[in-house]
Design a protein that fits this description.
- It is a single chain.
- This protein folds into three domains: about 250 residues, Alpha-Beta Barrel (TIM Barrel), CATH 3.20.20; about 110 residues, Lyase, Ornithine Decarboxylase, Chain A, domain 1; about 30 residues, no CATH class.
- The protein is about 30% helix and about 20% strand.
- Strands 1, 10, 11, 12, 13, 14, 15 and 16 form an eight-stranded mixed beta sheet that branches.
- Strand 13 and strand 14 form a beta hairpin.
- It is elongated and about 70 Å long.
- The two termini are about 35 Å apart.
Length: about 400
């Protein structure tokens, strides 16, 4: 196979989904389409009954093509265009997560013109800072996302005065790649405060969308191939105070697909600089943007252990004509030579989906480690799955309980 290319382990993805379903229990999960739009991956996710979290009109159309139910699609994003709103209304999606008063008015106007009804969740900016990269924080006052707590009642009043909008609840999302669970505890307690505030104002909330943000282990992907869903959901079970009628939703992306993807690449040259030793590979920032955009650090391993006891320090860099095209600096790895094959781990989320043709680069192809036609589920997971799917649906999707 010609490098660079993406390799997806669908068997690992299925194990991840089974683990997720078991620990999510009575919560509802929407998959964040933006993390990875690969058709095979998305089809497997739909077979487990997850909904779809979309941030564009094309993502809505893609989700429908992959088999996500329209009434289980939520549409988020600060800049929904009139055309995208029309696509969502035409396909009767489950909910709009609105992020400004003007957006709400536009949705109302278009819904009236189309004689359609729209369910609305108000995205609230809870002003909760988190331990993550500044570019993927989304829940503090200086971010562009959501509305302030002080604006909620004004939006609620507007919705109640219309005949084609309905308030379904509130939406929150504080950021991505969060591994310090105290951040989610802070979110839960802030949500409790907001619900109490609205209750005292006569507004009852029976739908909560708490976003996602759960991180994965980029440094130890082999040892920790599945995200810590148990402790993630336990944080909310132990700290979120909602009545039994309140439906709680989550929008997870990276934690579902992040570890199932790898980027395979080849060493083109070894270059000895004055102070550095460079391993120049044929994958670049056009194939995996995260290191250049977020200074993300992916684990890189050599496929064949030709020198297992001889480790040298390299800057592993790509071929793009940009100084930011660097995957790892001062990285210790087995001695490398021209032609050696490398694997960049944990590329299932925000990897191939962010590829570009800058420098007129060819797009990397995708290959798969396929799942089998049946899933080996333990008894606990068998009991959890019917929360999401009927037995009839399981059989129709080739997920046969053993």
């Amino acid at each position: 196979m010609t490098t660079p290319y993406y390799l997806y382990d669908l068997k690992l993805l299925e194990k991840t989904l089974q683990n997720l379903i078991f620990h999510a229990a009575d919560y509802r999960i929407h998959y964040a389409i933006k993390a990875n739009t690969d058709y095979k991956i998305n089809k497997l996710i739909t077979s487990y009954g997850l909904g779809a979290d979309c941030v564009s009109g094309n993502e809505i159309l893609h989700a429908l093509k992959c088999g996500f139910s329209s009434d289980n699609i939520v549409f988020a994003g600060v800049g929904k265009t009139d055309q995208e709103i029309s696509i969502a209304l035409e396909n009767n999606i489950g909910c709009f997560n609105i992020e400004s008063f003007q957006e709400l008015k536009v949705i109302h106007s278009i819904a009236q013109q189309m004689n359609k009804h729209a369910n609305i969740a108000i995205r609230v900016n809870p002003n909760v800072d988190v331990d993550t990269h500044q570019y993927i924080k989304t829940g503090i006052n200086e971010n562009k996302f959501g509305v302030s707590i002080e604006q909620i009642l004004e939006l609620v009043d507007y919705i109640e005065d219309t005949n084609c909008l309905s308030l379904t609840g509130l939406h929150f999302h504080i950021g991505s790649q969060i591994t310090n669970f105290r951040n989610f505890e802070f979110l839960a307690k802030k949500v409790n405060f907001i619900i109490d505030y609205l209750h005292n104002e006569g507004v009852e909330i029976n739908h909560l969308n708490l976003g996602g943000g759960l991180g994965i282990d980029y440094e130890n992907p082999t040892e920790n191939p599945i995200a810590d869903f148990k402790n993630y959901f336990d944080v909310f079970r132990n700290n979120l105070s909602v009545n039994s009628n309140c439906k709680v939703h989550f929008e997870l992306g990276r934690s579902i697909v992040g570890q199932c993807g790898e980027l395979h690449t080849k060493v083109v040259y070894i270059k000895e600089g004055i102070n550095k030793r460079f391993a120049i590979i044929d994958a670049g920032m056009t194939d995996l943007l995260r290191p250049a955009l977020y200074q993300a650090k992916h684990k890189i391993v050599k496929q064949s252990k030709t020198h297992p006891f001889s480790k040298l320090k390299y800057d592993i860099v790509g071929p793009i004509c940009e100084s930011s095209d660097v995957f790892r600096k001062d990285y210790f790895i087995e001695e490398l030579n021209r032609g050696d094959l490398l694997v960049i781990k944990s590329c299932g989320a925000y990897g191939q989906v962010m590829c570009s043709s800058y420098n007129l680069r060819s797009q990397p192809k995708s290959y798969y480690i396929e799942t089998e036609n049946k899933s080996s589920l333990n008894e606990e997971i068998k009991l959890a799955l019917p929360t999401y799917l009927s037995l009839k649906n399981l059989v129709s999707n080739n997920i046969i309980l053993q």
